[in-house]
Structure formats: structure tokens, C-alpha cells
Amino acid sequence: METLKMYVFLMLLVVGVSGGDTGCGGKTADVYFLLDSSSSLSRSDHDKQLEFVKDVVTMFDIGQDKTRIGMAIFSHMYREVFNFQAYDTLAQLKYAFTKVPYLSGRTNIALALRKIRQHVFTSNKARENVSHILVVITDGGWFQTQAREASLLHNMGVNVFAVGVTKNANNNGLEQIASLPRGDDQSFLFNVLKYEDLDNIKDSLVTRICKVAGL
């Protein structure tokens, strides 16, 4: 019996030590996801996109003094789903993912980026002295003003990851959105052909976000 008690104690000790080392090892960051919700996505693709983001978020240590998560969706309009202050736990975030609506409509990335700049990474919303990270997932759409909006975000110190889905995604537009570098193993730019392929880049994306969070 004493041997069994000692075994249980050691197992609890191991879990306790490793439990705080989730994903980025406890590094702090404000990470915001901007998701395409236009008519070019089917509802099935919309759900696959959300499942991918949920899997990514699961790999972070969530909390108001740790990694905070926010999310917005866009088509020709922009809608914030939840901000950095909304949820304190991973369980709360997972439940929030089940409530994300599907917008439909045209794709206007420029509008969405402007809203992010004006209402998300501001002094009263985002924390000082932590990395500010934006992950944009889209399957296309391009507006002349999106290069300017992306540049303004970059100049604010926001690290922008651009994930293009399907062969229809505008690569030039994605390159304008993504922070530098864009063409090597440190790239802020990702491409997949189908929404079900997003899982193939999950580990690489999380690794890159963690590196940025460690700056």
C-alpha cells in the first residue's frame, strides 16, 4: 500500500511540474485570430477553420497574466467575436468557439485589418511589454488599401502571420499582410490547398508564434 501511495504521489508531482509548461512554456503574448467568414467558404470549411484555431489555442498557457486570445471574423463586414479580456481559461475559450457565427458576403481584408489596428492592438486593449501577434486566415480577396493597412500594423509592432487557403488565395496580397521574413523556415507566411490541410501547419505555426512570444 505504501508503494502505491508513493507511486501516486510521484505521478501527481510530475503532472504538477509539467502542467504549467503548455505550448510556449508559459511565455506571455496577446494573440488575436482574424478569420475569413465570407461566402467563398462553405459552412463545412468554416467549421474546419474554427477547429484548427481551437487546436492551436489548446497549445498555449491561457490566462490574463499568461497568453490571452482574441478573435474576429470578417467578410465585407467585420465582427469581433471576443476580445483579450473576455476569457481566462482554455475551457471558456473552447466553449466560445462553438458560438462563432458564419457571416457570408464578399471578402474585404483591408476593412478587417483597419478595425484590428483601431480597436484591438491599442493601449487600452493590448498589454505593454508582451508580444502582439495577429494570425489572419483567408482563402482570397484583395483590396488596394490592404497593403497600407498591413504596413500600419507592422509599424505598430504587431507580428502578423498570414495563412492562405486554397489555390485561389492571392499570394501577393498575403505577402503584403505577413510580417518579414516570408520565404524560409522563419516565415510568417503559410499556404495550404484545403481547409482540411490546415492541421499540417499547426505545429509549425505554433512554433513560430512561440518564438515571437519569446522576443
Give the topology, please:
Blueprint: H1 2-19, E1 29-36, H2 43-57, E2 67-74, E3 78-82, H3 90-97, H4 109-119, E4 131-138, H5 146-155, E5 158-165, H6 171-177, E6 189-192, H7 202-213
Parallel strand pairs: 1-2, 1-4, 4-5, 5-6
Antiparallel strand pairs: 2-3
Structure explained in plain terms:
With 215 residues, the chain is an alpha/beta fold. Helices cover 38% and strands 19% of the residues. The protein contains seven helices and six strands, in the order αβαββααβαβαβα. Strands 3-2-1-4-5-6 form a six-stranded mixed β-sheet, with helices on both faces. Strand 1 (29-36), helix 2 and strand 2 (67-74) form a beta-alpha-beta unit. Helix 2 (43-57) packs antiparallel against helix 3 and helix 4 packs parallel to helix 5 (146-155).
What's the count of strands?
6
Question: Order of strands in the sheet with the most strands?
Answer: 3-2-1-4-5-6
Class per helix and strand makeup: alpha/beta
How are helices and strands ordered from N to C?
HEHEEHHEHEHEH
State the main characteristics:
215 residues; alpha/beta; Rossmann fold; six-stranded mixed sheet; 7 helices; globular
